[in-house]
Write a structure and sequence with these properties.
171 residues, Aminopeptidase, 7 strands, globular, GNAT family N-acetyltransferase, repressor
């Protein structure tokens, strides 16, 4: 990657209008949707940008999960037999056509892996599986709500939690 590029969280100062990867949906996402997803804690967006704020490439990260049954057996031999495993989703990844062939896409993947191991993906909601109705009542008192299909599985959107507990409650 060019030494004058740094990878950082997408900021308002980044020049998004000039970005063009050749895929309209990816260009439009960066220009029009990424900031809303960040505010709503649906995903985080990271950009490779130069000192002037020009974006050479970007990717998004979000928390996700995968059913253990969807993985090949050789991958699951030494894993706990949980039905769902945590995952990090690279939702989008794009490199501006002006910067292609410089290894930026590979560097973005490596950066995503580094951030994933440091728990950087966005988290929309906290999820709990209450062991019984008494535990579920405890969580409901703290703002959690049940999923439609599972009364003992509850969720609390992070944005709601920050309003309830205040940002200072989270170091």
């Amino acid at each position: 990657m060019k030494p004058d590029l740094i990878i950082e969280t997408r900021q308002a100062s980044h020049s998004r209008s000039a970005f063009g990867c050749g895929v309209l949906a990816l260009d439009r996402y960066l220009r029009e949707q990424a900031s809303q997803d960040i505010k709503r804690r649906v995903s985080n967006c990271f950009v490779a940008a130069n000192r002037d704020g020009a974006i050479a490439g970007y990717y998004t990260l979000a928390a996700s999960s995968v059913p253990i049954t969807s993985l090949p057996e050789d991958q699951t031999k030494r894993l706990p037999r949980y039905p769902i495993l945590p995952a990090t989703l690279i939702g989008r990844l794009a490199v501006d056509t002006r910067f292609r062939g410089q290894g930026i896409g590979s560097v973005l993947i490596i950066d995503a892996l580094r951030r994933s191991t440091q728990a950087a993906p966005a988290c929309f909601t906290l999820v709990v599986d209450a062991k019984d109705e008494q535990a579920a009542a405890f969580y409901r008192r703290h703002g959690f709500a049940p999923f439609k299909s599972r009364a003992l599985s509850l969720f609390l959107p992070v944005a709601t939690a920050l309003k309830l507990f205040g940002p200072e409650a989270i170091p």
